[in-house]
Design a protein that fits this description.
Two copies of one chain form a homodimer. Chain A contains eleven helices and twelve strands. By secondary structure, chain A is an alpha/beta fold. Chain A folds into three domains: 81 residues, Orthogonal Bundle (Arc Repressor Mutant, subunit A); 94 residues, 3-Layer(aba) Sandwich (D-Maltodextrin-Binding Protein, domain 2), CATH 3.40.190.10; 96 residues, Periplasmic binding protein-like II (D-Maltodextrin-Binding Protein, domain 2), CATH 3.40.190. The radius of gyration of chain A is 26 Å and the shape is elongated. Chain A binds a DNA duplex through helix 3.
DNA sequence: ATTTTTCGTTTAAATTATTTGAACAATTTG
DNA sequence: CAAATTGTTCAAATAATTTAAACGAAAAAT
Protein backbone atom coordinates (compact mmCIF):
# COMPACT_ATOMS: atom_id res chain seq x y z
CA UNK A 1 0.00 0.00 0.00
CA UNK A 2 1.58 3.24 -1.09
CA UNK A 3 1.06 6.27 1.03
CA UNK A 4 -0.64 9.23 -0.53
CA UNK A 5 -1.84 11.49 2.25
CA UNK A 6 0.95 13.95 2.73
CA UNK A 7 -1.46 16.84 3.13
CA UNK A 8 -2.92 15.29 6.24
CA UNK A 9 0.53 15.16 7.80
CA UNK A 10 0.42 18.93 8.22
CA UNK A 11 -2.76 18.59 10.22
CA UNK A 12 -1.17 15.79 12.19
CA UNK A 13 1.80 18.01 13.00
CA UNK A 14 -0.43 20.70 14.46
CA UNK A 15 -2.32 18.18 16.57
CA UNK A 16 0.96 16.68 17.75
CA UNK A 17 2.30 20.10 18.67
CA UNK A 18 -0.76 20.94 20.74
CA UNK A 19 -1.59 17.41 21.80
CA UNK A 20 -5.15 18.53 21.28
CA UNK A 21 -7.61 18.14 18.45
CA UNK A 22 -9.61 21.15 19.62
CA UNK A 23 -6.63 23.49 19.77
CA UNK A 24 -5.39 22.25 16.40
CA UNK A 25 -8.84 22.78 14.90
CA UNK A 26 -9.03 26.41 15.98
CA UNK A 27 -5.47 26.97 14.82
CA UNK A 28 -6.34 25.54 11.42
CA UNK A 29 -9.71 27.29 11.26
CA UNK A 30 -11.45 23.96 10.90
CA UNK A 31 -13.98 22.05 12.91
CA UNK A 32 -12.64 19.55 15.37
CA UNK A 33 -14.66 16.87 13.65
CA UNK A 34 -12.61 17.43 10.52
CA UNK A 35 -9.34 17.23 12.39
CA UNK A 36 -10.43 14.06 14.14
CA UNK A 37 -11.47 12.59 10.80
CA UNK A 38 -8.11 13.40 9.24
CA UNK A 39 -6.13 11.81 12.03
CA UNK A 40 -8.31 8.73 11.91
CA UNK A 41 -7.93 8.43 8.14
CA UNK A 42 -4.21 8.97 8.42
CA UNK A 43 -3.88 6.23 11.00
CA UNK A 44 -5.89 3.87 8.80
CA UNK A 45 -3.69 4.58 5.80
CA UNK A 46 -0.52 4.20 7.81
CA UNK A 47 -1.53 1.01 9.53
CA UNK A 48 -0.44 2.11 12.99
CA UNK A 49 -1.67 4.50 15.67
CA UNK A 50 -0.27 8.00 15.99
CA UNK A 51 -1.93 8.88 19.27
CA UNK A 52 -2.75 7.00 22.38
CA UNK A 53 -6.18 8.09 23.54
CA UNK A 54 -6.11 7.75 27.26
CA UNK A 55 -9.20 9.23 28.83
CA UNK A 56 -9.79 12.58 27.25
CA UNK A 57 -6.14 13.25 26.57
CA UNK A 58 -3.84 12.58 23.64
CA UNK A 59 -0.35 11.17 23.78
CA UNK A 60 1.93 10.55 20.84
CA UNK A 61 2.85 6.93 20.32
CA UNK A 62 6.56 6.23 19.66
CA UNK A 63 5.63 5.82 16.00
CA UNK A 64 3.82 9.14 16.10
CA UNK A 65 6.85 10.83 17.62
CA UNK A 66 9.13 9.62 14.86
CA UNK A 67 6.68 10.55 12.15
CA UNK A 68 6.18 14.11 13.37
CA UNK A 69 9.90 14.68 13.40
CA UNK A 70 10.54 13.36 9.93
CA UNK A 71 7.42 14.79 8.35
CA UNK A 72 8.07 18.27 9.71
CA UNK A 73 11.62 18.25 8.43
CA UNK A 74 10.66 16.88 5.04
CA UNK A 75 7.63 19.05 4.35
CA UNK A 76 9.51 22.10 5.61
CA UNK A 77 12.22 21.32 3.10
CA UNK A 78 9.64 21.45 0.37
CA UNK A 79 8.13 24.66 1.70
CA UNK A 80 11.55 26.21 1.91
CA UNK A 81 12.33 25.31 -1.67
CA UNK A 82 8.99 26.69 -2.80
CA UNK A 83 9.63 29.95 -0.96
CA UNK A 84 13.08 30.12 -2.49
CA UNK A 85 11.59 29.60 -5.93
CA UNK A 86 8.90 32.19 -5.34
CA UNK A 87 11.48 34.76 -4.39
CA UNK A 88 13.83 33.56 -7.12
CA UNK A 89 16.67 32.70 -4.80
CA UNK A 90 19.66 31.15 -6.54
CA UNK A 91 19.93 27.35 -6.60
CA UNK A 92 22.45 25.71 -4.30
CA UNK A 93 25.89 24.99 -5.70
CA UNK A 94 25.98 21.32 -6.73
CA UNK A 95 29.33 19.62 -6.34
CA UNK A 96 30.06 16.13 -7.61
CA UNK A 97 32.91 14.27 -5.90
CA UNK A 98 34.02 10.99 -4.41
CA UNK A 99 32.54 10.32 -0.97
CA UNK A 100 36.11 9.53 0.05
CA UNK A 101 37.29 13.03 -0.82
CA UNK A 102 34.25 14.59 0.75
CA UNK A 103 34.65 12.96 4.14
CA UNK A 104 38.43 13.01 4.33
CA UNK A 105 39.47 16.27 2.76
CA UNK A 106 36.54 18.55 2.11
CA UNK A 107 34.30 17.99 5.10
CA UNK A 108 36.84 19.01 7.77
CA UNK A 109 37.51 22.23 5.87
CA UNK A 110 34.05 22.99 4.68
CA UNK A 111 32.86 25.01 7.63
CA UNK A 112 35.39 27.66 6.73
CA UNK A 113 33.61 28.14 3.44
CA UNK A 114 30.09 28.01 4.82
CA UNK A 115 31.03 30.40 7.61
CA UNK A 116 32.50 32.88 5.15
CA UNK A 117 29.61 32.50 2.67
CA UNK A 118 26.50 31.49 4.55
CA UNK A 119 24.36 32.72 1.68
CA UNK A 120 25.70 30.05 -0.67
CA UNK A 121 23.90 26.74 -0.35
CA UNK A 122 25.87 23.60 -1.13
CA UNK A 123 24.76 20.21 -2.34
CA UNK A 124 27.01 17.20 -2.78
CA UNK A 125 26.36 14.32 -5.13
CA UNK A 126 28.49 11.19 -5.27
CA UNK A 127 30.83 10.76 -8.21
CA UNK A 128 32.34 7.30 -8.35
CA UNK A 129 34.45 7.45 -11.46
CA UNK A 130 35.41 9.94 -14.09
CA UNK A 131 33.10 8.55 -16.74
CA UNK A 132 30.11 9.68 -14.72
CA UNK A 133 31.03 13.37 -14.92
CA UNK A 134 29.22 13.87 -18.19
CA UNK A 135 25.97 12.40 -16.96
CA UNK A 136 25.82 14.28 -13.67
CA UNK A 137 24.36 17.73 -13.65
CA UNK A 138 26.76 19.37 -11.22
CA UNK A 139 28.12 22.92 -11.18
CA UNK A 140 31.52 21.69 -10.06
CA UNK A 141 33.14 18.25 -10.26
CA UNK A 142 36.18 17.13 -8.30
CA UNK A 143 38.01 13.90 -9.03
CA UNK A 144 41.26 12.06 -8.55
CA UNK A 145 42.93 11.73 -11.93
CA UNK A 146 46.08 12.38 -13.93
CA UNK A 147 46.73 14.89 -16.65
CA UNK A 148 45.20 13.71 -19.90
CA UNK A 149 42.33 11.75 -18.40
CA UNK A 150 39.87 14.63 -18.41
CA UNK A 151 38.61 16.01 -21.68
CA UNK A 152 36.87 19.20 -20.65
CA UNK A 153 38.70 22.28 -19.33
CA UNK A 154 39.98 21.50 -15.84
CA UNK A 155 42.48 22.56 -13.22
CA UNK A 156 44.72 20.69 -10.81
CA UNK A 157 44.02 21.40 -7.15
CA UNK A 158 46.99 19.54 -5.71
CA UNK A 159 49.16 16.54 -6.43
CA UNK A 160 48.18 13.42 -4.53
CA UNK A 161 50.19 10.34 -5.44
CA UNK A 162 48.83 6.92 -4.60
CA UNK A 163 50.31 3.55 -3.83
CA UNK A 164 48.97 0.05 -3.13
CA UNK A 165 47.61 -0.36 0.38
CA UNK A 166 46.51 -3.36 2.43
CA UNK A 167 45.64 -4.28 5.98
CA UNK A 168 48.14 -5.65 8.51
CA UNK A 169 47.80 -9.26 7.41
CA UNK A 170 48.51 -8.42 3.81
CA UNK A 171 51.39 -6.16 4.84
CA UNK A 172 52.88 -9.11 6.74
CA UNK A 173 52.65 -11.34 3.71
CA UNK A 174 54.31 -8.62 1.64
CA UNK A 175 57.19 -8.47 4.12
CA UNK A 176 57.66 -12.23 3.86
CA UNK A 177 57.21 -12.88 0.17
CA UNK A 178 57.68 -9.48 -1.45
CA UNK A 179 55.02 -7.31 -3.06
CA UNK A 180 55.56 -8.67 -6.57
CA UNK A 181 54.29 -12.10 -5.62
CA UNK A 182 51.45 -10.95 -3.38
CA UNK A 183 50.08 -8.39 -5.79
CA UNK A 184 49.59 -11.02 -8.45
CA UNK A 185 47.69 -13.32 -6.11
CA UNK A 186 45.60 -10.91 -4.03
CA UNK A 187 42.36 -9.36 -5.35
CA UNK A 188 42.80 -5.81 -6.59
CA UNK A 189 40.03 -3.45 -5.57
CA UNK A 190 38.94 -0.88 -8.15
CA UNK A 191 36.30 1.79 -8.55
CA UNK A 192 35.29 0.45 -11.94
CA UNK A 193 36.71 -1.69 -14.70
CA UNK A 194 37.44 1.46 -16.68
CA UNK A 195 39.86 2.89 -14.17
CA UNK A 196 43.45 3.16 -15.32
CA UNK A 197 45.12 3.56 -11.94
CA UNK A 198 46.16 -0.07 -11.52
CA UNK A 199 47.36 -0.33 -15.12
CA UNK A 200 49.57 2.69 -14.58
CA UNK A 201 50.95 1.27 -11.38
CA UNK A 202 51.74 -2.11 -12.93
CA UNK A 203 53.52 -0.37 -15.78
CA UNK A 204 55.52 1.75 -13.36
CA UNK A 205 56.45 -1.35 -11.32
CA UNK A 206 57.45 -3.27 -14.41
CA UNK A 207 54.80 -5.92 -13.85
CA UNK A 208 52.25 -7.33 -16.24
CA UNK A 209 48.72 -6.15 -15.42
CA UNK A 210 47.24 -8.99 -17.45
CA UNK A 211 48.62 -11.53 -14.98
CA UNK A 212 46.87 -9.97 -11.98
CA UNK A 213 43.86 -11.40 -10.23
CA UNK A 214 40.42 -10.45 -11.40
CA UNK A 215 39.67 -7.43 -9.25
CA UNK A 216 36.73 -6.69 -7.04
CA UNK A 217 34.91 -3.55 -8.09
CA UNK A 218 33.49 -1.39 -5.29
CA UNK A 219 32.19 1.87 -6.65
CA UNK A 220 31.80 3.86 -3.44
CA UNK A 221 35.24 4.99 -2.36
CA UNK A 222 34.54 5.07 1.38
CA UNK A 223 33.26 1.52 1.25
CA UNK A 224 36.37 0.57 -0.68
CA UNK A 225 38.64 1.87 2.08
CA UNK A 226 36.73 -0.26 4.55
CA UNK A 227 37.03 -3.26 2.26
CA UNK A 228 40.82 -2.94 2.31
CA UNK A 229 40.82 -2.66 6.11
CA UNK A 230 38.64 -5.75 6.23
CA UNK A 231 41.27 -7.60 4.22
CA UNK A 232 39.25 -8.04 1.08
CA UNK A 233 42.16 -7.02 -1.13
CA UNK A 234 44.62 -4.35 -2.17
CA UNK A 235 43.62 -0.91 -3.36
CA UNK A 236 45.40 2.21 -4.50
CA UNK A 237 45.08 5.00 -1.97
CA UNK A 238 46.68 8.37 -1.56
CA UNK A 239 47.72 10.17 1.59
CA UNK A 240 44.13 10.91 2.60
CA UNK A 241 44.12 7.52 4.32
CA UNK A 242 46.87 8.76 6.65
CA UNK A 243 44.69 8.36 9.77
CA UNK A 244 44.25 4.65 9.06
CA UNK A 245 47.94 4.25 8.27
CA UNK A 246 49.07 5.91 11.47
CA UNK A 247 46.70 3.83 13.54
CA UNK A 248 47.99 0.65 11.89
CA UNK A 249 44.74 -0.36 10.23
CA UNK A 250 46.21 0.27 6.79
CA UNK A 251 49.72 0.00 5.33
CA UNK A 252 51.36 1.44 2.26
CA UNK A 253 52.79 -1.62 0.56
CA UNK A 254 55.29 -0.16 -1.89
CA UNK A 255 57.84 2.58 -2.56
CA UNK A 256 56.47 2.98 -6.06
CA UNK A 257 53.93 5.81 -6.09
CA UNK A 258 51.79 7.13 -8.88
CA UNK A 259 53.28 10.60 -8.77
CA UNK A 260 51.38 12.11 -11.63
CA UNK A 261 47.96 11.72 -10.04
CA UNK A 262 46.17 14.38 -8.06
CA UNK A 263 42.86 16.04 -7.44
CA UNK A 264 41.35 17.96 -10.33
CA UNK A 265 38.40 20.28 -10.50
CA UNK A 266 36.23 21.34 -13.36
CA UNK A 267 33.20 23.58 -13.66
CA UNK A 268 30.36 23.57 -16.11
CA UNK A 269 31.25 26.15 -18.72
CA UNK A 270 27.73 27.59 -18.52
CA UNK A 271 28.39 28.38 -14.86
CA UNK A 272 31.83 29.86 -15.07
CA UNK A 273 30.51 33.35 -14.73
CA UNK A 274 28.44 32.42 -11.67
CA UNK A 275 29.62 34.22 -8.55
CA UNK A 276 29.11 31.24 -6.25
CA UNK A 277 31.10 28.95 -8.54
CA UNK A 278 33.94 31.46 -8.62
CA UNK A 279 33.98 31.86 -4.86
CA UNK A 280 34.00 28.12 -4.28
CA UNK A 281 36.77 27.52 -6.80
CA UNK A 282 38.88 30.23 -5.22
CA UNK A 283 38.29 28.78 -1.81
CA UNK A 284 39.28 25.33 -3.08
CA UNK A 285 42.52 26.77 -4.45
CA UNK A 286 43.30 28.52 -1.16
CA UNK A 287 42.65 25.43 0.92
CA UNK A 288 44.65 23.27 -1.46
CA UNK A 289 47.62 25.58 -1.17
CA UNK A 290 47.41 25.84 2.62
CA UNK A 291 47.08 22.13 3.15
CA UNK A 292 50.02 21.08 0.99
CA UNK B 1 -0.12 31.92 0.87
CA UNK B 2 0.85 28.69 2.54
CA UNK B 3 1.29 25.64 0.41
CA UNK B 4 -0.97 22.68 1.11
CA UNK B 5 -0.88 20.43 -1.93
CA UNK B 6 1.83 17.95 -1.15
CA UNK B 7 -0.19 15.06 -2.56
CA UNK B 8 -0.18 16.63 -5.99
CA UNK B 9 3.60 16.72 -5.91
CA UNK B 10 3.66 12.96 -6.36
CA UNK B 11 1.64 13.33 -9.53
CA UNK B 12 3.95 16.11 -10.62
CA UNK B 13 6.96 13.87 -10.10
CA UNK B 14 5.53 11.19 -12.38
CA UNK B 15 4.76 13.73 -15.07
CA UNK B 16 8.25 15.19 -14.73
CA UNK B 17 9.81 11.75 -15.01
CA UNK B 18 7.92 10.96 -18.19
CA UNK B 19 7.68 14.49 -19.49
CA UNK B 20 4.22 13.44 -20.55
CA UNK B 21 0.78 13.85 -19.07
CA UNK B 22 -0.53 10.88 -21.00
CA UNK B 23 2.18 8.49 -19.87
CA UNK B 24 1.87 9.71 -16.30
CA UNK B 25 -1.89 9.22 -16.42
CA UNK B 26 -1.62 5.59 -17.50
CA UNK B 27 1.08 4.99 -14.90
CA UNK B 28 -1.17 6.43 -12.20
CA UNK B 29 -4.30 4.74 -13.53
CA UNK B 30 -5.97 8.09 -13.95
CA UNK B 31 -7.37 10.01 -16.84
CA UNK B 32 -5.09 12.50 -18.49
CA UNK B 33 -7.63 15.19 -17.78
CA UNK B 34 -7.13 14.61 -14.08
CA UNK B 35 -3.39 14.77 -14.35
CA UNK B 36 -3.57 17.95 -16.36
CA UNK B 37 -5.93 19.44 -13.80
CA UNK B 38 -3.58 18.57 -10.94
CA UNK B 39 -0.56 20.15 -12.59
CA UNK B 40 -2.55 23.26 -13.41
CA UNK B 41 -3.83 23.54 -9.84
CA UNK B 42 -0.35 22.96 -8.49
CA UNK B 43 1.07 25.70 -10.67
CA UNK B 44 -1.67 28.07 -9.53
CA UNK B 45 -0.98 27.34 -5.88
CA UNK B 46 2.75 27.69 -6.34
CA UNK B 47 2.60 30.88 -8.34
CA UNK B 48 5.08 29.76 -10.99
CA UNK B 49 5.08 27.40 -13.94
CA UNK B 50 6.46 23.88 -13.63
CA UNK B 51 6.38 23.03 -17.31
CA UNK B 52 7.00 24.92 -20.47
CA UNK B 53 4.38 23.86 -22.99
CA UNK B 54 6.04 24.18 -26.31
CA UNK B 55 3.91 22.74 -29.06
CA UNK B 56 2.67 19.34 -27.94
CA UNK B 57 5.66 18.63 -25.72
CA UNK B 58 6.49 19.33 -22.10
CA UNK B 59 9.73 20.71 -20.71
CA UNK B 60 10.53 21.31 -17.08
CA UNK B 61 11.16 24.92 -16.20
CA UNK B 62 14.23 25.59 -14.02
CA UNK B 63 11.81 25.99 -11.13
CA UNK B 64 10.19 22.68 -12.00
CA UNK B 65 13.57 20.96 -12.07
CA UNK B 66 14.45 22.17 -8.61
CA UNK B 67 11.05 21.28 -7.21
CA UNK B 68 11.09 17.70 -8.54
CA UNK B 69 14.46 17.11 -6.96
CA UNK B 70 13.57 18.43 -3.55
CA UNK B 71 10.06 17.03 -3.46
CA UNK B 72 11.21 13.53 -4.41
CA UNK B 73 13.88 13.55 -1.74
CA UNK B 74 11.55 14.93 0.91
CA UNK B 75 8.53 12.77 0.24
CA UNK B 76 10.73 9.71 -0.10
CA UNK B 77 12.14 10.47 3.33
CA UNK B 78 8.62 10.36 4.70
CA UNK B 79 7.82 7.16 2.84
CA UNK B 80 10.99 5.59 4.12
CA UNK B 81 10.17 6.48 7.69
CA UNK B 82 6.66 5.12 7.28
CA UNK B 83 8.01 1.86 5.89
CA UNK B 84 10.48 1.66 8.73
CA UNK B 85 7.65 2.20 11.22
CA UNK B 86 5.46 -0.36 9.53
CA UNK B 87 8.18 -2.97 9.78
CA UNK B 88 9.12 -1.77 13.25
CA UNK B 89 12.68 -0.95 12.37
CA UNK B 90 14.65 0.59 15.23
CA UNK B 91 14.90 4.35 15.39
CA UNK B 92 18.18 5.93 14.36
CA UNK B 93 20.72 6.56 17.08
CA UNK B 94 20.46 10.21 18.08
CA UNK B 95 23.69 11.84 19.14
CA UNK B 96 23.88 15.33 20.60
CA UNK B 97 27.21 17.12 20.23
CA UNK B 98 28.92 20.36 19.38
CA UNK B 99 29.04 21.04 15.64
CA UNK B 100 32.72 21.73 16.21
CA UNK B 101 33.36 18.23 17.50
CA UNK B 102 31.23 16.71 14.77
CA UNK B 103 33.05 18.31 11.88
CA UNK B 104 36.56 18.19 13.29
CA UNK B 105 36.79 14.92 15.14
CA UNK B 106 33.82 12.69 14.49
CA UNK B 107 33.06 13.29 10.83
CA UNK B 108 36.47 12.21 9.49
CA UNK B 109 36.21 8.97 11.49
CA UNK B 110 32.54 8.30 11.09
CA UNK B 111 32.70 6.30 7.90
CA UNK B 112 34.54 3.59 9.79
CA UNK B 113 31.52 3.17 12.02
CA UNK B 114 28.90 3.36 9.30
CA UNK B 115 30.89 0.93 7.15
CA UNK B 116 31.11 -1.56 10.01
CA UNK B 117 27.49 -1.09 11.04
CA UNK B 118 25.47 -0.02 8.03
CA UNK B 119 22.30 -1.19 9.75
CA UNK B 120 22.58 1.46 12.45
CA UNK B 121 21.15 4.80 11.41
CA UNK B 122 22.66 7.91 12.94
CA UNK B 123 21.22 11.34 13.59
CA UNK B 124 23.13 14.29 14.94
CA UNK B 125 21.61 17.20 16.80
CA UNK B 126 23.55 20.29 17.82
CA UNK B 127 24.43 20.69 21.48
CA UNK B 128 25.81 24.10 22.24
CA UNK B 129 26.42 23.93 25.94
CA UNK B 130 26.14 21.43 28.72
CA UNK B 131 22.97 22.91 30.14
CA UNK B 132 21.09 21.81 27.06
CA UNK B 133 21.75 18.11 27.61
CA UNK B 134 18.73 17.68 29.84
CA UNK B 135 16.33 19.20 27.35
CA UNK B 136 17.55 17.30 24.30
CA UNK B 137 16.15 13.87 23.66
CA UNK B 138 19.32 12.18 22.47
CA UNK B 139 20.50 8.62 23.02
CA UNK B 140 24.07 9.76 23.43
CA UNK B 141 25.53 13.17 24.28
CA UNK B 142 29.12 14.21 23.80
CA UNK B 143 30.55 17.42 25.22
CA UNK B 144 33.73 19.18 26.15
CA UNK B 145 33.84 19.51 29.92
CA UNK B 146 35.82 18.81 33.04
CA UNK B 147 35.23 16.32 35.79
CA UNK B 148 32.49 17.55 38.10
CA UNK B 149 30.57 19.56 35.53
CA UNK B 150 28.27 16.73 34.51
CA UNK B 151 25.72 15.39 36.95
CA UNK B 152 24.52 12.21 35.29
CA UNK B 153 26.69 9.10 34.85
CA UNK B 154 29.31 9.81 32.24
CA UNK B 155 32.68 8.70 30.91
CA UNK B 156 35.77 10.51 29.65
CA UNK B 157 36.65 9.79 26.03
CA UNK B 158 39.97 11.58 25.97
CA UNK B 159 41.70 14.53 27.54
CA UNK B 160 41.68 17.66 25.41
CA UNK B 161 43.18 20.72 27.07
CA UNK B 162 42.35 24.16 25.74
CA UNK B 163 44.09 27.49 25.68
CA UNK B 164 43.23 31.01 24.49
CA UNK B 165 43.47 31.43 20.74
CA UNK B 166 43.38 34.41 18.41
CA UNK B 167 44.09 35.32 14.82
CA UNK B 168 47.45 36.65 13.57
CA UNK B 169 46.74 40.28 14.42
CA UNK B 170 45.86 39.45 17.99
CA UNK B 171 48.87 37.12 18.25
CA UNK B 172 51.08 40.02 17.17
CA UNK B 173 49.64 42.29 19.81
CA UNK B 174 50.21 39.56 22.39
CA UNK B 175 53.87 39.34 21.34
CA UNK B 176 54.26 43.10 21.77
CA UNK B 177 52.30 43.79 24.93
CA UNK B 178 51.98 40.37 26.56
CA UNK B 179 48.87 38.27 26.94
CA UNK B 180 47.91 39.64 30.33
CA UNK B 181 47.23 43.07 28.92
CA UNK B 182 45.57 41.96 25.72
CA UNK B 183 43.27 39.46 27.34
CA UNK B 184 41.77 42.12 29.56
CA UNK B 185 41.06 44.44 26.63
CA UNK B 186 39.97 42.04 23.86
CA UNK B 187 36.49 40.57 23.73
CA UNK B 188 36.29 37.02 25.03
CA UNK B 189 34.15 34.70 22.94
CA UNK B 190 32.04 32.17 24.82
CA UNK B 191 29.41 29.57 24.08
CA UNK B 192 27.11 30.93 26.73
CA UNK B 193 27.28 33.06 29.81
CA UNK B 194 27.07 29.93 31.93
CA UNK B 195 30.28 28.43 30.66
CA UNK B 196 33.03 28.10 33.22
CA UNK B 197 35.97 27.64 30.85
CA UNK B 198 37.16 31.24 30.91
CA UNK B 199 36.74 31.51 34.67
CA UNK B 200 38.92 28.44 35.10
CA UNK B 201 41.54 29.82 32.77
CA UNK B 202 41.66 33.19 34.52
CA UNK B 203 42.07 31.43 37.85
CA UNK B 204 44.85 29.27 36.49
CA UNK B 205 46.60 32.33 35.01
CA UNK B 206 46.24 34.26 38.23
CA UNK B 207 44.14 36.97 36.61
CA UNK B 208 40.86 38.45 37.70
CA UNK B 209 37.99 37.33 35.50
CA UNK B 210 35.84 40.22 36.72
CA UNK B 211 38.17 42.71 35.03
CA UNK B 212 37.81 41.13 31.59
CA UNK B 213 35.86 42.60 28.73
CA UNK B 214 32.22 41.77 28.33
CA UNK B 215 32.34 38.70 26.13
CA UNK B 216 30.60 37.99 22.88
CA UNK B 217 28.44 34.91 23.09
CA UNK B 218 28.31 32.76 19.95
CA UNK B 219 26.50 29.53 20.65
CA UNK B 220 27.45 27.53 17.57
CA UNK B 221 31.00 26.32 18.03
CA UNK B 222 31.94 26.21 14.35
CA UNK B 223 30.79 29.79 13.93
CA UNK B 224 32.81 30.70 16.97
CA UNK B 225 36.00 29.35 15.44
CA UNK B 226 35.35 31.48 12.40
CA UNK B 227 34.72 34.49 14.61
CA UNK B 228 38.17 34.11 16.14
CA UNK B 229 39.75 33.79 12.69
CA UNK B 230 37.88 36.92 11.66
CA UNK B 231 39.47 38.74 14.59
CA UNK B 232 36.33 39.26 16.61
CA UNK B 233 38.02 38.19 19.79
CA UNK B 234 39.78 35.49 21.80
CA UNK B 235 38.30 32.07 22.47
CA UNK B 236 39.38 28.93 24.25
CA UNK B 237 40.10 26.12 21.82
CA UNK B 238 41.68 22.71 22.11
CA UNK B 239 43.91 20.86 19.67
CA UNK B 240 41.05 20.21 17.25
CA UNK B 241 41.82 23.59 15.70
CA UNK B 242 45.28 22.27 14.73
CA UNK B 243 44.62 22.69 10.98
CA UNK B 244 43.99 26.39 11.45
CA UNK B 245 47.01 26.76 13.72
CA UNK B 246 49.36 25.05 11.27
CA UNK B 247 48.08 27.15 8.40
CA UNK B 248 48.59 30.31 10.44
CA UNK B 249 44.99 31.39 10.59
CA UNK B 250 44.86 30.77 14.32
CA UNK B 251 47.46 30.99 17.12
CA UNK B 252 47.62 29.54 20.59
CA UNK B 253 48.27 32.60 22.73
CA UNK B 254 49.50 31.10 25.99
CA UNK B 255 51.46 28.33 27.70
CA UNK B 256 48.76 27.97 30.27
CA UNK B 257 46.39 25.19 29.24
CA UNK B 258 43.23 23.94 30.87
CA UNK B 259 44.57 20.43 31.39
CA UNK B 260 41.62 18.96 33.19
CA UNK B 261 39.19 19.42 30.31
CA UNK B 262 38.35 16.80 27.74
CA UNK B 263 35.55 15.17 25.81
CA UNK B 264 32.95 13.30 27.79
CA UNK B 265 30.17 11.05 26.71
CA UNK B 266 26.98 10.03 28.40
CA UNK B 267 24.06 7.86 27.39
CA UNK B 268 20.44 7.94 28.40
CA UNK B 269 20.07 5.41 31.16
CA UNK B 270 16.96 4.02 29.48
CA UNK B 271 19.08 3.16 26.44
CA UNK B 272 22.08 1.62 28.09
CA UNK B 273 20.96 -1.87 27.22
CA UNK B 274 20.40 -0.89 23.56
CA UNK B 275 22.75 -2.74 21.24
CA UNK B 276 23.31 0.24 18.93
CA UNK B 277 24.21 2.51 21.86
CA UNK B 278 26.69 -0.07 23.12
CA UNK B 279 28.31 -0.48 19.71
CA UNK B 280 28.64 3.25 19.21
CA UNK B 281 30.10 3.81 22.68
CA UNK B 282 32.62 1.04 22.12
CA UNK B 283 33.55 2.48 18.77
CA UNK B 284 33.97 5.92 20.34
CA UNK B 285 36.30 4.42 22.95
CA UNK B 286 38.36 2.64 20.29
CA UNK B 287 38.69 5.72 18.12
CA UNK B 288 39.55 7.88 21.14
CA UNK B 289 42.33 5.51 22.11
CA UNK B 290 43.74 5.25 18.58
CA UNK B 291 43.71 8.96 17.99
CA UNK B 292 45.53 9.94 21.16
C1' DA C 1 -20.30 15.00 45.70
C1' DT C 2 -22.23 17.18 42.06
C1' DT C 3 -22.49 20.30 38.49
C1' DT C 4 -20.18 22.47 34.57
C1' DT C 5 -16.98 22.45 31.21
C1' DT C 6 -14.00 20.29 28.09
C1' DC C 7 -12.46 16.46 25.65
C1' DG C 8 -12.47 13.44 21.25
C1' DT C 9 -15.63 10.81 18.51
C1' DT C 10 -19.44 9.98 15.74
C1' DT C 11 -23.21 10.86 12.61
C1' DA C 12 -25.74 12.60 8.40
C1' DA C 13 -25.93 16.35 5.52
C1' DA C 14 -23.66 19.99 3.01
C1' DT C 15 -19.99 21.39 0.63
C1' DT C 16 -15.61 20.96 -2.05
C1' DA C 17 -12.49 18.79 -4.62
C1' DT C 18 -11.20 15.54 -7.76
C1' DT C 19 -11.97 12.50 -11.62
C1' DT C 20 -13.96 11.15 -15.74
C1' DG C 21 -14.84 10.87 -20.60
C1' DA C 22 -15.64 13.10 -24.62
C1' DA C 23 -14.65 16.94 -27.61
C1' DC C 24 -11.10 20.09 -29.17
C1' DA C 25 -7.16 22.39 -31.49
C1' DA C 26 -2.43 21.92 -32.17
C1' DT C 27 1.33 19.23 -33.50
C1' DT C 28 3.95 15.17 -34.77
C1' DT C 29 4.43 10.93 -37.18
C1' DG C 30 4.16 7.83 -40.99
C1' DC D 1 -1.50 14.79 -46.48
C1' DA D 2 -3.87 11.62 -43.38
C1' DA D 3 -3.69 9.35 -39.07
C1' DA D 4 -2.31 9.33 -34.59
C1' DT D 5 -0.99 11.70 -30.53
C1' DT D 6 -0.30 15.62 -27.70
C1' DG D 7 -2.24 18.62 -23.64
C1' DT D 8 -6.35 21.28 -22.52
C1' DT D 9 -11.06 22.14 -21.57
C1' DC D 10 -15.82 21.35 -20.23
C1' DA D 11 -19.99 19.57 -17.84
C1' DA D 12 -21.26 15.70 -15.34
C1' DA D 13 -20.28 12.12 -12.04
C1' DT D 14 -18.00 10.66 -8.25
C1' DA D 15 -15.30 10.88 -4.15
C1' DA D 16 -13.46 13.26 -0.41
C1' DT D 17 -13.56 16.55 3.00
C1' DT D 18 -15.88 19.63 6.16
C1' DT D 19 -19.46 21.05 9.01
C1' DA D 20 -22.58 21.33 12.87
C1' DA D 21 -24.85 19.07 16.21
C1' DA D 22 -25.26 15.29 19.38
C1' DC D 23 -22.94 12.09 22.44
C1' DG D 24 -20.52 9.82 26.31
C1' DA D 25 -16.52 10.09 29.05
C1' DA D 26 -13.49 12.40 31.91
C1' DA D 27 -11.64 16.78 34.21
C1' DA D 28 -12.27 20.91 36.53
C1' DA D 29 -14.88 23.81 39.23
C1' DT D 30 -18.13 24.44 42.60
Amino acid sequence: MTFYSYDMLRTFQVVAANLSMTAAASQLNQSKGSVSYQIKTLETHLGFALFERTNARLHLTPEGQRLVRVSIISLDQIDQEIEALRYKEPAPLTIALQTYFLSRWLSPRLMRFTAAHPEIGLRFVPLNFIGEIEGIDADISICWAKEGMIDAPHERLFACPACPTGNDKIAERVLEDGLDKIILSAPLLLDSSESTGWQDWFNRAGLDYENSQQGLSIADSNSRVQAVIDGQGIALWDRLVAPEVSSGRLHYLSDIWLDDYGYYVQAKKSNLESKAVGLFLNWLRDESRDAN
